[in-house]
């Protein structure tokens, strides 16, 4: 139960931070993208699980013709397959999540 309250507190902080960023005009997307092209591209929302194992070759073959959104630990499976997601989404903001995400700092993965 104590751990559950920790995640509740984390969500309260996240909402407060998001509210402040919206008020300050902090951009959510830091890189400029050609939104005209993005409107015509398929989007792969990738979560970790058995279906990812079955789809990894398809995702690798089409990674340059789609926008790839990696959710949670799926980023490590994509990294092992040499697939670079365009967007990464995580809900948890714990130290273990931050430690896990050091993979994103690899020279070949930026």
Order of helix and strand elements from N to C terminus: HHEHEHEH
- State the distance separating the first and last CA atoms: 38 Å
Helix and strand composition category: mainly alpha
Described by the principal axes of the CA atoms, the overall outline is globular
Main pleated sheet:
3 strands, parallel
Mean pLDDT: 81
Task: Count the beta strands.
Answer: 3
Radius of gyration: 16 Å
- Total number of domains: 2
Q: Identify the strand order in the major beta sheet.
A: 1-2-3
| Strand fraction | 5-15%
Portion of residues within helices: 40-55%
Return residue spans where pLDDT drops below 50 for at least 5 consecutive residues: none
What's the total helix number? 5
How is the secondary structure organized here?
Elements: H1 2-24, H2 35-38, E1 43-46, H3 50-62, E2 67-71, H4 74-80, E3 87-89, H5 95-100
Parallel strand pairs: 1-2, 2-3
Question: Could you please describe the fold and organization of this structure?
Answer:
The structure is a single chain. By secondary structure, the protein is mainly α. The protein folds into 2 domains: 1-29; 31-109, no CATH class. Helices cover 48% and strands 11% of the residues. It contains 5 helices and 3 strands, in the order ααβαβαβα. It has a 3-stranded parallel β-sheet with strand order 1-2-3, with helices on one face.
């Amino acid at each position: 139960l104590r751990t559950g309250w920790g995640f509740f507190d984390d969500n309260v902080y996240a909402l407060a931070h998001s509210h402040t960023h919206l008020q300050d005009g902090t951009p959510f997307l830091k890189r400029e993208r050609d939104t005209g092209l993005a409107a015509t591209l398929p989007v792969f929302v990738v979560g970790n699980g058995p279906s990812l194992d079955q789809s990894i070759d398809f995702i690798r073959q089409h990674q340059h013709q789609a926008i790839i959104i990696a959710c949670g630990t799926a980023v490590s499976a994509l990294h092992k397959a040499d697939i670079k997601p365009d967007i990464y989404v995580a809900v948890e903001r714990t130290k273990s999540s931050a430690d896990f995400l050091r993979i994103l700092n690899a020279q070949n993965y930026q």
